[in-house]
Amino acid sequence: MKAKKSIFLISFLSLAVALSAQAAYEEKPQEAMPFNVYTEQNATTNHFVPSGWMGDYGALRITQACKDNPHSGLTCIKINYTGEPTQGAGWVGLFWQNPENNWGSKDGGFNLSGASKLTFWARGEAEEENIEFKVGGITGAYPDSDTAGIGPIKLSKEWKQYTIDLQGLELFYISGGFVIAASRIDNPGGFAIYIDDIIYE
Length: 201
Description:
By secondary structure, this protein is mainly beta. The protein is built from 1 helix and 11 strands. The chain has one helix at residues 2-27; strands at 35-38, 49-55, 60-66, 76-81, 91-97, 117-124, 130-135, 148-154, 160-165, 176-183, 191-200.
């Protein structure tokens, strides 16, 4: 009898959490497009923070105010990965989150239902970088409502615009606004990449 009560209580709590998250989703107004993830260091129109370090994060470095040939404006993002197995994961990743350090435990995120795509510009230092790019993927009590991605993509030394198609997706709650991920196998010597103008459209 005690076991049945425990199962019922767990089911009830799970339902309560789900309903709470759904209520949070429904309260969010749809954001106008375009909607920026990053266009310039400290821009007031940036809406996500690169705070979700994953995998061998000890081998990862990010510079958000890099002035080395940005695609537009004065700054771009530079990301360095040494390739060292600092946490023994064999891969590395970085989430741009809202709010900062939100892994689904906080009510953050945005209603991006008006977006049909996410575009961004990227380039590599050696033309040997193989990177995956994604939208969404946060789980927890307040999970992202959908996810999409492209890659691995081999970057060139020249700036190139890439697009993640979002048509037909459920984007009413997105707290993981942008993600990069790369494996050590695909990038044995590490990498240095540059990203700029990450925008929902």
